[in-house]
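Loading example: each entry is read as two labelled lines plus one structure line.
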Amino acid sequence: MAEVQFRFRNDELVEDAMVTVDAFGQQANASAVRIEPGDEPRDLLPHLERLRLVEVNFPAFTDGRGLSAARILREAGYAGELRAVGDVLVDQLAALRRCGFDAFAPEVPLNEDDARAALARWPAAYQPAADGRAPLWALRHGQGA
Amino acid sequence: MYVYDQFDQAMVDARVAEFRDQVRRRLEGHLSEDQFKPLRLMNGLYLQLHAYMLRVAIPYGTLNSAQMRMLGQIAAKYDRGYGHFTTRQNIQYNWIRLEDAGDILADLASVGMHAIQTSGNCIRNTTSDQWAGAAADEVADPRPYAELIRQWSTFHPEFCALPRKFKMAVIAAEADRAAMRLHDIGIRLVKNAAGELGAQFYVGGGMGRTPMIAPPIRDWVPIDQFITYCEACLRVYNRHGRRDNKYKARIKILVHELGAAEYTRQVEEEFAHLLSQGIEPPAAELARIAAQFTDPPFETGLPDSMDLADPAFARWVRVNVSGHKAPGYAVVTVSLKPAGGIPGDASAAQIELLADLARDHGFDELRVTHTQNVVLPHVRKADLYAIWQRLEATGMGSANIDRIGDIIACPGLDYCSLANARSIPVAQAISARMAAREDEIGELKLKISGCINACGHHHAGHIGILGVDRKGVENYQLLLGGSEGADCSLGTITGPGFDEEGIVGAVETATEVYLARREAGERFLDTYRRIGMAPFKEALYG
């Protein structure tokens, strides 16, 4: 399993055993789950209180289903670690962060400098997402805080 | 029109820096071509048959003279002296070097332009009615709403890796001048009995190899919720659109396979959830944008009459000039379709002349049409003769809007790596052959695609032509009866295809059937709908 290369959380790294979305509902003591692109993230919503780690797999960076899965979990109030794994590349990092991911374990480790530059690239965002960033319209109308 | 504030400018500047960095990493080998391709596509950079092509966004087809002038300068400096206006109201340059792309994007950013999301599997440039703000029949100017969509969809983090490309159009009149129902999402702004503005949503239209007319999925979305509704439509598509087969990945297939009712149910469920998520821009933002689309300072008391003594001018006025909401003003559509020419092409000098005309006579405003022409939306009727003379002198005086020579054609096998057949020479041959008969034939929309992907809108032509490869030889199928308008319909193939010479004759034959059978006031399309395919087949193959 790939190492966590970037993490934007202060709590301890979660290393709990990972189960599938299908199995998670039945395993009352499971606290970590891995979402594949076709999985239904809303199946996890009844169990949010025992979830500490959600890993979302990107078998190919061109498959954006995991972006929706992440936002859906954040919109439902999930505050634990949301880790992107698989084909995670430098140029997807900013969008992944905006969708609520706060940890990255790319299959192939990323160039540190390129990754830091990509994460710092955007001065603002046009639309609200799951990162709490005030959208441009809020900044324009004095709602940005 | 909309002018960037410092926030918009900072975003575009950041994009230029990002792209330069991506090119550097590609050249240094940190990015493979497979990794780089989606990135360059989302900056409008395609690799065609002979060179890179750069597609520049013209949001909802609106631009000012400084922007148009820059487009001409880019054609002169980085291309072989031409720009090509496209069916998404954009412009593309067919002869670009990869190493110049960053500089071109920087030049564009200096006039508030970019190539963001003009390609790739993301939300593309939103199109609109080219007469917005000038047409008498609109319930509102659709551009502020299209601009809201531009901002919402730009770098949308959830929708940057969709199953396939995604095209949206916004109109605000009963008449449809933007092929709204042939889009992934088509929005028509409407007013209710109380005079409030709302949005009708049509989802799942498109052309390509499986053409579909978008079904209505909601009659009324309150205007202060319509961005949230867009987000719901996209989320359902991003999660459930097919990714196993790129030819079945457009939203039209999802809507078709689920059924419009089930797709709508899922969207409504997502919409109900998203309403609590603070997605919608506030009314103050819409007001800020709308304030930039107020009417130009029209003069009052201008004459509506013109001296039409010059017959060539009178003909151009009859065909290319349309009514305006303000007395004494007119809408001019400049034809980029000279007989025998390349549809939608304009030279650097022509592009700069269009900029001059907008500056001198048109409140600094221009529009690009999805039919690959350019509009001066607000000109005094008193200035029309001077404008026409300058257009005539530069090869842009053709009086053929919506006539058989006003052809939409894709770049075809002359440029495109997907094409099976050439489109441009067929368009050139037809417009040259039929030019003398345009007045006699009247309105006839002819559209040509060089492959099944249908970039030339052949399904929606009154006459459509589809180029295919038949055992290594270019072959052209003929379709009749399509329409992109409010009476949207898809064309039907007449029968076996024709060779390059034969298709030109077949088009002429079809027009002769029409001329022989038409009743008073009928357009080609009306006659076809009344008499059906049989008489045309008889003449073509009998």
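Chain B is about 35% helix and 20% strand.
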